[in-house]
């Protein structure tokens, strides 16, 4: 009997989203389409330069891994999340937001230390692309101290955010989590997170993956960068050496899935995309829900594409709680109609 369906780990970040033009990105010197680590000062500088463009006044706890685990929780999985916040207002907010979403967390999250909770400034261009400037704050010190091996051992699946590779202690925590999961017979999954992480920390990601995870998530650029090729077919072959199954997301073209035996292409619904922040995170959350509930890769991929299609049609990396239930109802109706 498993206490949790999904145990995740990642950086705890509060998101602020701002709509900008490509000219804004250029004049502010922001790299488009990737996550760049910045200090507090640079983040403030960007926010004040763009304060009249603000699109999300509402704070929500983000960070890629949290977006995934919260989505999985709203779909109906029992979830646990390891992360680190500071003893500040954002830290209190983050803890409350996780609890509201029904996500359990380790005791260490309640013993927050002095410092600053991490923040992510997400700049959205008219082509719906997201360019992120992240100040990790106290999340840079996320470490094995935030792991709860008992909770992990009582879980069905583990999910590791690849962004952790940028912090030496975060990477060590990710590796220990994977190894503990392997010892306890918990299935392992990991997201390569961002093309910049693949480019800057390729070897670190290899260490985090070890002899291979059960399920690897990545997008097109991450797959190509990780495999050092410019063809998706070749990248897919290359990835098979590092995992027992994968889901490669392909933006508006949906996803390429491999369940260890067969490959499947799943189409994305036609939507008007305005903000792709968190699209990959939602895909992973919905997909993990699906396979936890016994769906085939193809069925889980269809649900994940529908859910991610909804996320890119609205601002912010998360859906409202009720939207998860609506997606599941639509899923059942679509299957009944087949
Ligand atoms: N324009 C779009 N139209 C429909 N669905 C989309 C679109 N863009 C993304 N999606 C959905 O989101 C999923 C993930 O998108 P993508 O491959 O761009 O991942 P990503 O780059 O990791 O996203 P992000 O890093 O911004 O979270 C896709 O598989 C698809 O289901
Ligand atoms: O868009 C992505 O790839 C993300 O991972 C989303 C961000 O990490 C997250 O919302 C930032 O807090």
From TrEMBL:
InterPro entries: Carb_kinase_PfkB-like, Carboh/pur_kinase_PfkB_CS, PfkB_dom, Ribo/fructo_kinase, Ribokinase-like. GO terms for molecular function: 2-dehydro-3-deoxygluconokinase activity. The gene is kdgK. It comes from Microbulbifer aggregans. Keywords: Kinase, Transferase. Belongs to the carbohydrate kinase PfkB family. It holds the Pfam family PfkB. This is 2-dehydro-3-deoxygluconokinase. Its EC number is 2.7.1.45.
